[in-house]
Fold this protein.
Amino acid sequence: MKGSFCVIATAASLIAPQAFAAELPLKAPPPIPYYNWAGPSVGMAGGYGWGPSDQTDPGIPCSYFGLVGPINDCHHPVVTADGSYSLSGGIIGGGLGYNWQSGPWVYGVEADYSWANMTGSSNTCGATSPIPHSCGTDLQSLGTLRGLLGYAMGARGNWLPYVTGGLAVGEVQAWDSLYPSSGSDFRSGWTVGAGLATGLTQNWIFQVQYLYVDLGSSQMFNVVPGVPETVSVTANVIEVGIYYKFY
């Protein structure tokens, strides 16, 4: 009888701790930290751009070509040296920014400046003139100062689709072979676009964005003495970048 009591007591001592442990709540794993987009950042980006450029003028007097009236295809008092063509080429540069965050909403400001090699030309500028000729435009640099508004998404909030827009500046060079003549202009305009950023780590950010850029139109040179030539430039730019975010 005494031996049976010992066996029962021993079994109870083995079962009781296990039953007590089963009643304890399981400890939840630590929560995944939510990604923090706030703070300054600096990085590099590169990509490709394309878009139209137009050259226009008020018209060249037929007398410039030694023509008067409806002879030798000069049917109007003036003829133009107008041209239209597409620009395309690469772009690479650097930028910096600062973001603030309120819940999932992220807002900030970004500035960048890039070397560009977006060029284009046409061999039929002044197609209606007695002397069709070549003309072209080069976009040699591009910078922006933009505001940003995004919404953090994903389980960790480390995906950020955003919209952006603001000021654009660029160095434009244009030429015309009729005279020949050329000019350059550092001009300002505007830009608007959208992008997607992802936080690879708390410090490193990968970004893809699209920008539409309009640098407007302005007089660049005289296509012939006394006849101003106006050049317009717009561009679509797609670029990818890697940025380091400071805490």
In short: The chain has one domain: 37-245. Residues 73 and 127 are 11 Å apart (CA to CA).
